[in-house]
């Protein structure tokens, strides 16, 4: 998994240096950009993973589902998380590779090529950044915490709910951040740089490695409602654990308040 993520990252770095020549297309909406770099990176990852474990199933953002004889084991891959950042020359983007076994993510790699940060986690073996053990933060109150979030852009749902979340949380925290890449935000929660992260419109490949990174770093991963996490459920909330209940309660309050207005 590490080899595959780093190989894809090397190819993306070369493409990143050729941004003016890169062919860009629109995907599902005007603000959802995709380039040939995504597809090249996914081909690289898929080829190396298939060579190592040819029987495993595969789910990739670009290529979708590919069958394998062993359906209990599945690779989940986002070859370029933070495509818009990548295309606009921002360094905050990465490669996500996760292994799901019988419905549970058991290993994950997030590689941020420009920053040269390699995040790795395996169930029961901790979370690591460039070979150094990482832990979630120890802050225990929202007022002292820095949160990260996903901001819905054009074509995404829940804009009014997000505005309500900001109204409630911006006045009661030390700060709210958005990097533009779920891979970055979740890895940084695992490393203690952020205290929590949530987003209401995501895919499995966005969050899969980050889930085990956060859990193996001592944190918590649930749905935004605080329920058991389904990585195919389209939303996630991860934190250091200590502020989780308070954050989930505030997110629920935002949802209820917006619903009452609507």
TrEMBL record:
Documented EC number(s): 3.1.3.25
Keywords noted in UniProt: Hydrolase, Magnesium, Metal-binding, Transcription, Transcription antitermination, Transcription regulation
Reactions catalysed, as given in the entry: a myo-inositol phosphate + H2O = myo-inositol + phosphate
Transmembrane stretches, start-end: none
Molecular function via GO: inositol monophosphate 1-phosphatase activity; metal ion binding
Pfam families xrefs: Inositol_P
Binding site for Mg(2+): 61, 78, 80-81, 206
SUPFAM superfamilies in UniProt: Carbohydrate phosphatase
GO biological process: inositol metabolic process; signal transduction; transcription antitermination
Keyword Metal-binding: yes
Cofactor: Mg(2+)
Similarity comment: family membership: Belongs to the inositol monophosphatase superfamily.
Protein name: Inositol-1-monophosphatase
Species this chain originates from: Luteimonas wenzhouensis
């Amino acid at each position: 998994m590490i080899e595959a993520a780093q190989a894809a990252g090397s190819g993306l770095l070369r493409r990143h240096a050729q941004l003016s020549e890169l062919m860009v297309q629109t995907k599902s909406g005007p603000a959802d950009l995709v380039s040939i770099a995504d597809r090249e990176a996914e081909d690289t990852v898929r080829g190396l993973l298939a060579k190592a474990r040819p029987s495993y199933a595969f789910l990739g953002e670009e290529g979708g589902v590919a069958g394998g004889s062993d359906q209990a084991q599945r690779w989940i891959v986002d070859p370029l998380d933070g495509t818009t950042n990548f295309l606009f020359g921002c360094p905050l983007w990465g490669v996500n590779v996760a292994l799901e076994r019988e419905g549970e993510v058991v290993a994950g790699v997030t590689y941020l090529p420009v920053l040269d940060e390699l995040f790795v986690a395996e169930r029961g073996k901790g979370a690591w950044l460039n070979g150094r053990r990482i832990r979630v933060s120890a802050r225990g109150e929202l007022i002292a915490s820095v949160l990260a979030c996903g901001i819905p852009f054009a074509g995404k749902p829940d804009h009014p709910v997000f505005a309500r979340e900001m109204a409630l949380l911006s006045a009661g925290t030390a700060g709210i951040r958005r990097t533009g890449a779920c891979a970055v935000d979740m890895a940084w929660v695992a490393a203690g740089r952020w205290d929590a992260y949530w987003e209401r419109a995501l895919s499995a490949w966005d969050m899969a490695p980050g889930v085990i990174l956060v859990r193996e770093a001592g944190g918590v991963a649930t749905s935004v409602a605080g329920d058991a996490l389904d990585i195919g459920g389209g939303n996630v909330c991860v934190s250091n654990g200590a502020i989780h209940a308070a954050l989930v309660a505030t997110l629920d309050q935002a949802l209820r308040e917006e619903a009452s207005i609507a």
